[in-house]
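Tokens as discussed.
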């Protein structure tokens, strides 16, 4: 069940930008990366956040409202992440996710989820495509950058595959060293 289709008015105010009031669970795994643990937050139905626990500037959930538990969905998500980090190309659509926010934010993050493994696209290219889909003349790459920066579900929504003009790395919530590392991982396969 991919929850990109929920409209903001259908989302209840809740503990994170996914807008859910359902029970929220978190679990942090020691990762095979040089960057520390990877944390996952999920309801019983969908993943709401994935982040590098020691590196993300803003934790995307209210930990006071989350229970620590390794649920079946969190364990399944960890298997997906482990496969990804091992260079296998697991299908990101295999893990249900919940993304809230504006229609624009969800549209940008949905588009990013389609960027193929090992490839990159620019903020400007995404802006051109979304403007085309919306039937408008143009859209600012900076607006796309704001939506990309709001991504709470790292790896499953591979925002590290979005770069600036002329291939510049742009930004990454967890640091450019992690973005470089993930892009290198995908190029080596």
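Sequence:
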């Amino acid at each position: 069940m991919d929850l990109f289709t929920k409209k903001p008015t259908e989302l209840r105010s809740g503990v994170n930008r996914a807008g859910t009031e359902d029970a929220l669970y978190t679990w942090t795994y020691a990762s095979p990366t040089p960057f520390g643990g990877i944390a996952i937050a999920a309801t019983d139905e969908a993943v709401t956040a994935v982040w590098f626990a020691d590196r993300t500037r803003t934790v995307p959930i209210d930990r006071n409202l989350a229970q620590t538990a390794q649920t079946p969905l969190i364990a399944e998500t960890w298997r997906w992440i482990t496969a990804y980090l091992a260079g296998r190309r697991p299908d990101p659509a295999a893990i249900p996710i919940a993304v809230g926010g504006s229609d624009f934010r969800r549209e940008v993050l949905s588009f990013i989820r389609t960027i193929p493994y090992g490839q990159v696209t620019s903020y400007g290219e995404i802006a051109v495509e979304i403007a085309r889909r919306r039937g408008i003349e143009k859209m600012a790459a900076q607006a796309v950058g704001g939506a990309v920066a709001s991504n709470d579900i790292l790896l499953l929504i591979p925002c590290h595959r979005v770069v600036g003009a002329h291939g510049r790395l742009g930004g990454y919530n967890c640091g450019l060293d992690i973005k470089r590392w993930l892009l290198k991982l995908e190029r080596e396969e």
